[in-house]
């Protein structure tokens, strides 16, 4: 089992553990706000399962039906997680409304609040690991899972602060208002995640920094060519697809032109992780005099 799969599987285990702890905190206190916090943890487990499935599927090698690989599976998983987060927010709103109409006095026991705090500490540590690992290995599904956990931690901290206010003021409806605020935070998290994931599905270009690096590499290692133009990039999970036109002298042999392409591809592979390069070689009269000048 690869390290990415082990990390994704670990998210499922952590999610289940945190869900049990938060639901226990709700049972000990009867707080609607803590119930909404526990409800969000159900989404954490579901999103972790989606991320695990996506990471497993994206790791499959390219085949006849998917010649460009399966990397985009992670974006689909991230969109699915976003949808589940939005559904959880709606469920939280319902619980908050019912609690607001028929407020009950929660029993804010210290052990219940301590259990909820422990769950938040576990979530925070795991979220840090997920985001760091996901960014390093360019895994949208793991980054999405980690960012959702960060939102969950912030929500839990807000709930605990709000619980203190309920204890000070004695205002029962404040518990339901806190639950509604949790729902708004969850809803925003889901919307942001879906928007970013859809960008990946729409073949969003590589960052400006990566494109500038590519231009410099082509210029530096394309000795013998005249220019390069029509540079295009798109990202899909860990893979960055790169294609451009390379203009060479009309009398250059195919072997020489091929050697130049190999040199450029090797340089890009050293500096851009997961790069897949396609170069279209053109004769001198195709030069546009507006692309990348080869040094």
Automatic annotation (TrEMBL):
InterPro entries referenced in this protein's UniProt entry, alphabetically: Cation_efflux, Cation_efflux_CTD, Cation_efflux_CTD_sf, Cation_efflux_TM, Cation_efflux_TMD_sf, CDF_Transporter
Keyword flag Membrane: yes
Cell compartment(s), UniProt: Cell membrane
Keywords annotated in UniProt: Cell membrane, Membrane, Transmembrane, Transmembrane helix, Transport
Residues of the Cation efflux protein transmembrane domain: 11-202
GO cellular component, one term: plasma membrane
Annotated TM spans: 7-29, 41-59, 75-93, 113-133, 153-171
Protein name: Protein p34
């Amino acid at each position: 089992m690869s390290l990415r799969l082990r990390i994704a599987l670990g998210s499922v285990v952590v999610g289940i553990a945190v869900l049990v702890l938060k639901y226990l905190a709700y049972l000990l206190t009867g707080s609607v706000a803590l119930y909404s916090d526990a409800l969000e943890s159900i989404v954490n487990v579901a999103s972790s399962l989606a991320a695990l499935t996506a990471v497993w599927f994206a790791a499959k090698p390219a085949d006849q039906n998917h010649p460009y690989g399966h990397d985009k599976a992670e974006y689909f998983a991230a969109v699915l997680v976003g949808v589940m987060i939005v559904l959880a927010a709606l469920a939280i709103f319902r619980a908050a409304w019912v609690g607001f109409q028929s407020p009950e006095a929660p029993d804010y026991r210290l052990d219940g609040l301590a259990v909820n705090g422990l769950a938040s500490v576990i979530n925070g540590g795991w979220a840090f690991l997920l985001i760091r690992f996901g960014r390093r290995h360019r895994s949208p599904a793991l980054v999405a899972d980690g960012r959702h956990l960060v939102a969950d931690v912030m929500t839990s901290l807000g709930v605990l602060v709000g619980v203190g206010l309920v204890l000070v003021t004695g205002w029962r409806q404040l518990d339901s208002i806190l639950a509604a605020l949790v729902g708004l935070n969850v809803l925003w998290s889901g919307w942001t995640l879906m928007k970013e994931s859809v960008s990946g599905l729409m073949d969003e270009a590589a960052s400006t920094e990566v494109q500038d690096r590519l231009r410099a590499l082509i210029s530096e290692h394309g000795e013998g060519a005249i220019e390069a133009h029509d540079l295009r990039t798109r990202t899909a999970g860990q893979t960055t697809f790169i294609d451009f036109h390379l203009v060479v002298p009309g009398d250059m042999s195919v072997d020489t032109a091929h050697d130049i392409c190999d040199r450029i591809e090797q340089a890009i592979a050293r500096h851009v992780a997961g790069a897949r390069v396609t170069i279209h070689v053109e004769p001198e009269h195709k030069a546009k005099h507006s692309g990348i000048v080869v040094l």
